[in-house]
Amino acid sequence: MNKRELTAALESIGMRPGRGLGQNFLLDGNLLDYIVRLSAPRPGEIVLEIGPGFGALTSKLLAAGSEVYAVEFDHRIAEYLRKHLTSQNFHLTEADACRVNYLELLPTNRPFRAIANLPYSISTIFIARMLELPAGPEAMFFMLQREMGERLSAEPGTKNYGALSVRTQLLYEVKLEKIVPPEVFFPPPEVESAIVSFRRHDRFRNEVELCRKLPGLVKNVFAQRRKQLGKVLGSFYGREKALAALATLGIAPETRPDKLTVAEFAALTREIFDLPR
């Protein structure tokens, strides 16, 4: 969808994009094609799309034969999509994507992937929702704010590495695939964007209790990321248990939280909560 077509679509529903809702519509057809090539939608697969806008990406997903479950917050855009996307493989839910019950929305016992130009205002909350699902997406491909993409894909020891990095990388291989300039959107956002891929790995897939306990632990320690691990863990879980866990793993109590790898955080969680090794 080029700017002329987008402007016509906006005018047809009497709409001006709302910055508060993160409504920045992608105009670059080459970038849309890149997202499709990268994500490689397959015939018959379930794809979750958040914030479909006027259906530029949606149409390509449907053309590939995917069954698309889209969630759109804006009533006017939802009405437009109902009129213009009539494929039986298109399922539209008009709702706040951060409040949807995805266990009810998506078909039971079928794997799915999430592919979207994700509204920036909800990206953190929505990705956290995906991480909390008992059977989350097999993969995700999102357009995000560059800063967000850098946080999610950050490596230990870097300034962007934090609780969300660890939580996400516990389940996914995360890669910042491409930096995207503001001018390819209408209206252009005030920041650079990035296309980020999340490919599920199996290293901790069957450790249900680990995946349930780790988010709280990393949230606690990164809330005080400048403090030594021995002290911050001791304040939450008891000094004796904290020091014993660190000693077992060969981690110095003076270590800062951002120096630990995801695997080390997983091992630390097992020690602190006495989970199976």
Protein structure class: alpha/beta
CATH superfamily of the largest domain, by name, is Vaccinia Virus protein VP39
What is the straight-line distance between the termini? 52 Å
Q: What are the secondary-structure elements, in order, as H or E?
A: HEHEHEHEHEHEHHEEEHHHH
Indicate the CATH class of the largest domain: Alpha Beta
Strand order of the largest sheet: 4-3-2-5-6-9-7
Low-confidence stretches: none
CATH architecture of the largest domain: 3-Layer(aba) Sandwich
Biggest beta sheet attributes:
7 strands, mixed
Write down the Rg. 21 Å
How is the CATH topology of the largest domain named? Answer: Rossmann fold
Average pLDDT? 94
Q: Could you say how many structural domains there are in total?
A: 2
Task: Give helix % range.
Answer: 40-55%
According to DSSP, the number of beta strands is 9
Determine the number of helices (DSSP H or I, runs of at least 4 residues): 12
Question: What fraction of residues sit in β-strands?
Answer: 15-25%
The shape is elongated
Explain this structure.
- The chain is α/β, with parallel strands linked by helices and 277 residues long.
- The chain folds into 2 domains: 3-200, Rossmann fold; 208-273, rRNA adenine dimethylase, C-terminal domain (Helicase, Ruva Protein, domain 3, Orthogonal Bundle).
- The protein is 41% helix and 18% strand.
- The protein has helices at 3-12, 29-39, 56-63, 75-84, 102-105, 123-132, 146-152, 163-169, 208-222, 229-237, 239-249, 262-273, and strands at residues 25-26, 46-50, 67-72, 90-94, 112-117, 139-145, 172-180, 185-186, 193-200.
- It has a 7-stranded mixed sheet. A two-stranded antiparallel ribbon has the order 1-8.
- Helix 9 (208-222) crosses helix 12 and helix 11 packs across helix 12.
- The chain is elongated and about 65 Å long.
- It starts with a helix and ends with a helix.
